[in-house]
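Sequence design from tokenized structure. All designs in this work follow the same two-part layout: the structure record, then the generated sequence. An example of the structure record is given first.
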């Protein structure tokens, strides 16, 4: 159980804003900065002062608030070394194997190219927290804009290797649509059926679907289940490579 306090709120149309606060040191971290005004408003509502921003990738809807936050708080901005030139206000570039410290909490940097060429995730090792942004969603993964499935599959395998109980915070509220698609390629998965019903109820009530866990994604996320014989049979890809199956699932989702 982590001692960190986590605030989740909506930004833009469907982005999740996430603040991580350490009550002992009073430090506050923003995971990405989708909208400066929204992030500042949430922090000030809670009486928190933002000391750090951990950027996951360069897309505008994840970094547009970087400079407003730096101007307001003079905070440190950390981001992926492979995208350093396009991360606004970057102070520290990090990559695979780098270890960060946030208020005494160990944070491992995991490079996860796929959605973008340099996307990184942040794993709070002792707290059991993963901030995955647009690499891994609840029952989904990010579109393959800058790298092929042959790069995304090794990225997802890194996340699959984390403990099942790891809580995963993702970048967008896509969960209901992801559940509907997942059922189209994994229709006989009883755990998935039950989860889809639970997600529909949450969204009907206006509730968030974040966080998920690595263990739950292993059971219900088709993008992590590319080795499953039933999914491969459904796709007619029994003998295909894992990354080929991932690529086909992603293609189907893009056109769903």
């Amino acid at each position: 159980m982590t001692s960190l306090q986590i605030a989740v709120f909506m930004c833009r149309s469907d982005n999740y804003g996430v603040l991580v606060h350490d009550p002992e040191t009073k430090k506050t971290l923003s995971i990405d900065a989708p909208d400066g005004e929204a992030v500042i408003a949430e922090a000030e509502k809670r009486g928190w002062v933002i000391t750090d921003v951990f950027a996951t990738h360069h897309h505008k809807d994840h970094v547009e608030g970087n400079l407003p936050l730096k101007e307001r708080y003079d905070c440190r901005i950390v981001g992926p070394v492979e995208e350093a030139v396009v991360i606004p206000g970057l102070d520290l570039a990090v990559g695979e194997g780098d270890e960060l410290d946030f208020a005494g909490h160990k944070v491992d940097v995991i490079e996860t190219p796929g959605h973008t060429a340099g996307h990184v995730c942040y794993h709070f090792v002792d707290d059991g927290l993963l901030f995955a942004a647009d690499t891994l969603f609840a029952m989904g993964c990010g579109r393959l804009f800058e790298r092929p499935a042959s790069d995304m599959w090794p990225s997802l395998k890194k996340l699959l290797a984390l403990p099942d109980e790891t809580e995963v915070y993702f970048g967008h509220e896509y969960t209901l649509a992801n559940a509907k698609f997942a059922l189209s390629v994994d229709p006989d998965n009883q755990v998935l059926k039950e989860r889809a019903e639970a997600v529909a109820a949450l969204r009907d009530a206006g509730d968030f679907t974040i966080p998920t866990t690595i263990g739950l994604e292993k059971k219900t996320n088709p993008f992590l289940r590319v080795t499953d014989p039933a999914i491969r049979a459904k796709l007619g890809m029994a003998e295909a490579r894992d990354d080929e199956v991932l690529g086909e699932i992603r293609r189907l989702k893009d056109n769903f």
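The mean pLDDT is 98. We note this feature because it recurs in several other targets discussed in the main text.
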